[in-house]
Amino acid sequence: MDARHLELLRELADHGSVTAVARATHRTPSAVSQQLKSAERRYQTPLVEPSGRGLRLTDAGHLLADAGRDVAEALARAQARWDEFRGQPTGRVRVAALPSAATFLLPGVFTELAELAIEIECEDVDLAEDDYPGLTRDHDLVIGHSLSRLLPPSVAGQVSALLTREPLDIAMAASHPLATQEQVSAQDLADQQWIGVPFGYPFDTVRVAVEEAIGCPVQVSLRLRDNRLIEALVASSDRVAVLPRFTTPTGPVVLRPLAEIPTARFIYAVARPDRAERLAVRRVLDALRRVGATFAGSG
Asked: What is the pTM of this model?
């Protein structure tokens, strides 16, 4: 069997279209189509079939795509053993990360790995909670978050590691009346103006929990994604918001824990099994674990 054909079929299974495979593998759609035809000639069996305007794998194609995952994982293990034999990991590790998690994790990782021949390429990505695991199609490691220790279902079949637990606090201006309290209750927040996040984003579950506790909706005047923008607006107004403890600077904005309602997010890393075998990826993941552990006691 030709490992390149198996890899191509696995890419099609993961990405879902010839165009997406071409983009991910830096080829033209025409070249991908030609290689699929070459694979069908080699195996003398239809491996793809029309589906709408595109193609989908046949049962035979799925079988070979699964075999491609096994081959990729075995090759990655072999490469990892070779790297260990030669003495140190090398290569590029592509990381996609939630910006607010990367802010407190990646500086320590870069410092720890500075002496190694590992190049870390990072992309900051702000998505809904369930969408992070899908980024492993194009990245070696993905740093996402979940409001539960139970990670999103889309993590299934991948290698994952819980990095740390980060409390989510109620943010307000230093001059806000509630800032004199050591913690705030749901009832304290009932008549406050809120700056929220888009529906479906993890922090919005705190707002929902407060509404359930007080039995009525709170007043959400804005819904924004960027934490720095939210901080600036909170600092200059009487509004409150939910912000993460480890990366929100103190000063004009103060953070107060929410009493009686557990509010935290869990930061995790996830990788495809074959990429998780690479020694360089393992070293970056180990560094993420160690840095995450230093923050665990702060929550």
From this structure: 0.75
Half-sphere exposure of 261 (CA within 13 A, CB side): 26
Rounded Cα distance between 78 and 279, Å, is: 10
Residue range 262-294, pLDDT digits in tens:
889 999 999 998 889 888 999 999 999 999 999
Distances (CA, A) of 207 to 126, 183, 212: 19, 16, 9
Q: What is the DSSP letter of 52?
A: T
- How many domains does the structure of the chain reveal? 3
Residue 91 neighbours by CB under 8 Å, 6+ apart: 117, 118, 119, 278, 280
158 and 204 in a single domain? The answer is no
Q: What is the CATH number of the domain that holds 23?
A: 1.10.10.10
Confidence of residue 107 (pLDDT cuts 50, 70, 90): very high
- Residue 36's alpha-carbon distances to 44, 66, 169, 175, in angstroms, are 12, 16, 52, 64
The residues facing 124 across adjacent strands are 97
How far is Cα 238 from Cα 220, in angstroms, rounded to an integer?
13
- Quote the DSSP letter at residue 187: G
**CA angle 162–164–231, rounded 5-degree value:** 130
Specify the DSSP class assigned to residue 139.
-
Q: Are residues 239 and 257 both part of a single domain?
A: yes
159's torsion region: left (phi>0), alpha (psi -120 to 50) or beta?
A: beta
- In this structure, the answer to whether residues 152 and 271 fall within a common structural domain is yes
Do the beta carbons of residue 202 and residue 129 sit within 8 Å? Answer: yes
Query: What are the distances in angstroms from CA 118 to CA 107, 113, 178, 272, 278?
Result: 15, 7, 47, 19, 12
Rg (CA), the chain: 23
